[in-house]
Amino acid sequence: MQIDGSYNSAEVKHSIFADNNNWGFSFESTTSLVQGDSLHVMNSGFFRNNGYGLRTSCQAEFEHLTVLDNTSNGIYMDGSFHGMSQILSSSTLWGNGSSSSWDQLYISSNFINIAHTNVMGGSSGLTGSSWDLDDSFISDMPYFEDNWGHMEATSPGVDGGKPWEIDAHMPMGLGGVRADMGMYGGPNNAYWGGDVISDGSSSLNAVSDIPQDQGNTLGLAFSSSFWDNNTAIDPVTEYTVWRHMDVGGSAISDLSQGSWELVGEVPAQGFESYGFQAPTLGNTNQFGEFMSCYTVIAETAIDQLYWQSNVLCGESVDNLAPDAPEVETGLIEPELAEVLWFSPGEEDYSYTVISSDHGFSAEVYGDTVTYDTTVQEGQEYTYYVQHVDANGNLSDLTTAVLSIEAMLDIIPLNPGWNLISLDRDPQNANPEDVFSELTTGNLQYVTGFDGGAMIYDPNGLSFLNTLTVLEGGRGYWVKVSEEDELRVSGTLLSSDYKTPLASGWNLVGFTGGQALVADYYATEIANDELIYVTGFDEGSSVYDPNGLSFLNTLNTLENGFGYWVKVDLDNGLIIDQEDEVSNVHDFVNGHTHDWLAGEVIDVVDEADIVVSQLHVLEGGWIRSTPLYGAAGFVLLLCTEQKQDLFKVSLKRKNCISFGMGERAMSAFVSMAIESFMPSTSPLKMGLCRFIQTLQTKCFQFHQRTSSLRNSK
Helix (H, G, I), strand (E, B), or coil: what is residue 285? Predict the structure, then answer.
């Protein structure tokens, strides 16, 4: 690349000029006063060009260059420069020129300052006018690992750049944090890749008054530097503490605002954090505030390599604190606790501060008691109490624990079906225990839903039940014959607990007091995920976020009630089918021959689609199984063996008998079908429970496959 003209200025960075038939890069000027032209090149490489690697006649500054194996001078500078010196730093020039005359750099007039640079042949590799070589100038084998200037870890160029600069990214920077020589090092090396290095600054986290002293001292707490470890190259060796010199005691927030004086040193020991007692110039007292401000510098053995912390200010106080309070707690009412203490004896006592681990806080003047109206049953509260004197001195902290016994979740039940939820995890979670206090014989059914329907029949065989545990925060259908009251003890859930949702139908609870549906599911509505929310309280109600709001009959969620919630969390991929796992389902269980134990019977409809699977347990019992969809099922089992009658009963009511032919065998199945089916119409969404009209269908039982096929 060649740029000619007058009054030119250019900045070249993160560039590679390689394998050209002529020189790599030329920046020439025709201006009579060439001081009007300038060139700045950084973090760039010049490799194997047939001529100069870089040529210029302008005022130039070069930093972090790698100039290798060009057939002529690596850098050729032929301008007059009019008394202005040139700069070359943190670079490597190697293998340029011919084997008989290694010409790394030529300058025609004036001189060039060269520092922290590795030049093949040392001063012999420099020709032309004159130069100034810093003590950091070296001529050692650079040890490249490839022909693109990447250095090996043992290269003298690693950590060989300016000591007050760092490699912004590691890699490409190597070794310690100090800047490397060459194009891949220094504070502007991010272009070449790698990750941002960890900042070596300490963080001044606290400037606190020393308790029970006469003032004039503050306690500083600061974190260690990332480079405070024995394995680091150029590690932090000590921390120096500096104080802003200001007799007026004003606060500052930035290093540039301060006048700094050294007040102490802390040796680096590899700790996670450090403390230091720093002297102050004055105290805060009843006459006014006096702020003392500090900063911490993480120092290395290299004078120019260090990291400064933030600035933080604090106040020292003459503080002889009051005695720690003696505290008692008690429960006055179910949601009202008192915290009380004995009156302090100190003359300068001012007030008492109270807080709790549940967010309660208070400041009390002229009294020895406060009241917490945020307590809830089944919780333990820790209160923190301190006395404060007129100078702001705090007593030692006193803690007092108040444990409030869990009470009961009381849910009224109406005759028929009730859609309920629990606001606590029951102490004994099996349905028999949870509903044990209902009137004997009053409970008929309990059903739940968690990715599939479950049932508990207190009047049936226990091993056929699939609902075996009740959980707080979930919804349940409960059917009773007469009005009753459910009383549940256990661990109270948080009032903001929200039942996790899955795509499709969810039967959820509500543990809070009351909330608008639109607010409670605001996120799901905003994400277009909520489809329906339905409820039931002696009648169904519905909330449709996509319909007309005045048509909604469900607007508020309440404690003690359960709700059906349908969501789409799969970006519209929910496909509604009659047999989807939904809130429309029947339950079927029964009994057959014991020799069928262990079999799984596929139930298929007239379209030959499997709608459910019946698992036969030991003794021929068929496990309670949900059948999803709006259609009911009545099953007849046919075999190919001897003739006999096949009898089906529905809720102990005989229905029909069939002769099955010569090869039929005796089979007896007693089936019970319970339907729990909200209407599919959004305006009628609710719970309807009915027994399906009996329909006679015959299915063939195929040996080994255990499937029911419609025999038409």
Answer: strand
DSSP conformation letters of 202-238 = --EEEEEEPTTS-SSEEEEEEEPPTT-STTSSS-EEE
pLDDT in tens, 437-449: 999 999 999 999 9
Instruction: Quickly tell me which residue has 């469900």 as its tokens.
Output: 554
Looking up tokens 């029909």 gives: 656
Backbone φ/ψ region at 509: left (φ over 0), alpha (ψ -120 to 50), beta: beta
d(CA 551, CA 563): 18
Element spanning 72, H or E: none
CA distance 248 to 384: 36
| Cα Rg, the chain, nearest whole Å | 42
Better pLDDT: 606 or 704: 606
Which pLDDT belongs to residue 54? 96
What token pair was written down for 573?
């991929």
Which structure tokens are listed for 369? 């008691």
Q: Look at residue 86 in the predicted model and tell me its pLDDT.
A: 86
Asked if residue 503 lies in contact with residue 566, where contact means CB atoms within 8 angstroms, the answer is no
Residue length, the chain? Answer: 712
For residue 27, what are its two tokens? 């920046």
Coil vs helix vs strand at 534: strand
Separation of first and last alpha carbons in the chain: 87
Bridge partner list, 701 = 708
List alpha helices for 191-326, DSSP H.
Answer: none
Q: Enumerate the β-bridge partners of residue 87.
A: 61, 113
Q: Which residues of 449-464 are buried (b: 16+ CB within 10 A; e: fewer)?
A: bbeebbbbbbeeeeeb
If DSSP states are collapsed to H, E and C, what string results for 695-711?
CCCCEEECCCCCEEEEC
Residue with tokens 């109490």: 385
Residue pair 224/268 in contact (Cβ under 8 Å)? The answer is yes
Domains of the chain: 1-197 (no CATH), 204-314 (2.60.40.10), 327-403 (2.60.40.10), 406-574 (no CATH), 585-710 (no CATH)
* Consecutive H or E run containing 432: helix 431-434
CA torsion sign for 638, 639, 642, 647 is negative
User: CA 234 from chain center: how many Å?
Assistant: 35
Query: What phi and psi, each to the nearest 5 degrees, are found at residue 43?
Result: 45, 50
Reply yes or no on whether the pLDDT at 16 is more than 90.
yes
SS3 464: helix
Q: Is the dihedral of CA 362, 365, 370, 371 positive or negative?
A: negative
Q: How far is CA 173 from CA 178, 185, 186, 201, 291, in A?
A: 9, 5, 7, 19, 42
Judge whether 542 and 589 are in contact, CB under 8 Å: no
Bridge-based pairing state of the strands 361-364 and 443-449: unpaired
pTM: 0.41
Cα–Cα distance for residue pair 584/24, rounded to 1 Å: 78
- In degrees and rounded to multiples of 5, residue 633 shows phi and psi of -135, 135
DSSP letter assigned to residue 176? S
C-alpha pair distances (Å), 230 with each of 195, 226, 296, 405, 576: 22, 11, 20, 54, 64
Amino acid 628: pLDDT: 66
Task: Return the structure tokens found at 269.
Answer: 């020991």
Class of residue 100 by CB neighbours under 10 A (exposed 0-12, middle 13-18, buried 19+): exposed
CA atoms of 445 and 409, how far apart (whole Å): 20
How do residues 45-56 score in pLDDT, each as one tens digit? 999 999 999 999
d(CA 174, CA 157): 9
Q: Are strands 97-98 and 101-102 parallel, antiparallel or unpaired?
A: antiparallel
3-class DSSP assignment, residue 157: coil
**How many degrees, rounded to 5, is the angle at CA 520 between CA 514 and CA 526?**
160
Q: State residue 377's pLDDT score.
A: 75
Q: How far apart are CA 454 and CA 472, in angstroms?
A: 16
Q: How far apart are CA 317 and CA 75, in angstroms?
A: 64
